[in-house]
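Try it yourself: sequence plus zinc ion, in.
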Amino acid sequence: MTGTSVELFEYSLGWLKQEGWAIVSLEECLERLASNDQSRRYAVLTFDDGYWDNISVALPILERNNAPFTMYVPTAALTRTMQCWWLGLRELFRSRDDVTIDAMGMRFHCHDLESKRLALTKVDQWVHQDYRRAEMLAQTFSDAGISLSRLNSQYFLDRGALQELSRHPLASIGGHTTSHAALATIDTTSARAELADNRNYLENLLQLPVRHHAYPYGACGVREEHLAKEAGFATAVTTRHGQLGTDRLNQFALPRIGVGSAFDSEISFAARMNGVQLAAQTLLAGRSHRQPAARDVSGRGRATVS
Ligand SMILES: [Zn+2]
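Structure, out:
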């Protein structure tokens, strides 16, 4: 599956190039927007969470394409405390055929990959309906001998690797909250702290300005946009599907286009794919003069991986 995923990612970049899109950094995107430069279509590449695969798999491809990118990193991934329930569930279904989710009152018997995927999607959706449910999975993970802390180390870049990556000429590091919280579901004081503490943490670690933010799970509304601005970010991206229009641009609610993934579902995404797809999560498309690539890219993606 990694091969397929790499194929999809390379296909997406190749497609952009072929269609005459420039891949630009978020900073350059802002400059172009400010100067109303519409000379060429452009896209911004973004990755969420800071997976090792971003470096081991995606980076060589990005380098070959000379493609700048922004990676959004939650503090908890670096401190190995992220409640990465989507990875825990993936591990759970991968490691056994019979899975009982007590908190959900469900029992799954999954004898093949397809039934595992379906079950995983079901549990995933259940959590996405109410993120507080993520904590209710702790006992299930612990009973199954699954350590989220170990999964943190296995899947997410460590501090040293992120420091190194931040010096890469193509890379820019952005914020993604302290704990990967669904900001819209928590109180204002906590949401404010999630944004500001994460930004401070990254700036201290990297000794670089951290100007961009991605809302975990895309959970944001007007309040979160205000808070992101107040925390000192220059932009914030959502998981809302779309492109930058010419009017009413809201820098704190920028749309994105997922590559080969059901965007609102990090878990079914993780379940379907590994490798670069976990990494190459998103493609933020710049303004376009005609109908976008989005459908082509993601359509092809789904066809390729399913
Ligand atoms: Zn995320």
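One thing you can check immediately is this: Strands lie at 22-23, 42-48, 69-73, 98-101, 106-109, 171-175, 212-214, 235-241, 254-258, 282-285.
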